[in-house]
Amino acid sequence: QLQLVESGGGLVQPGGSLRLSCAASGIILDVNGIRWFRQAPGKEREGVSCISRSGGSTGYADSVKGRFTISRDNAKNTVDLQMNSLEPLDTGVYYCAAVRLMRDYCPGAGVTYDYWGQGTQVTVSS
Hints:
Distance between the termini: 39 Å
Radius of gyration: 13 Å
Number of helices: 0
Shape: globular
Helix content: under 10%
Number of strands: 11
């Protein structure tokens, strides 16, 4: 069965940190670019961060730049999102998505992704 599974969400106070993980099964992640998305209640889904097949290229939304770091371990078939200095506006359901790529680049938010995870809830509140 081909699937992505996110983990690591939870409740954290403002200023705190969380590390999200996206694990793949039945999918060889190293031929896929990965993007993390998030969706807050009543808001549109937002592309948060992306990483290329090799991990050599990354990208971040302006709202998270300098606070979030995306990384991948192709040997373990995982992609992580380290989130520091969390703010209440970071609250939402976080999803990872994978798209098969012929070249090594960071996939955009408008790309049609081949695989999606079920999401993990992140709540930043005091």
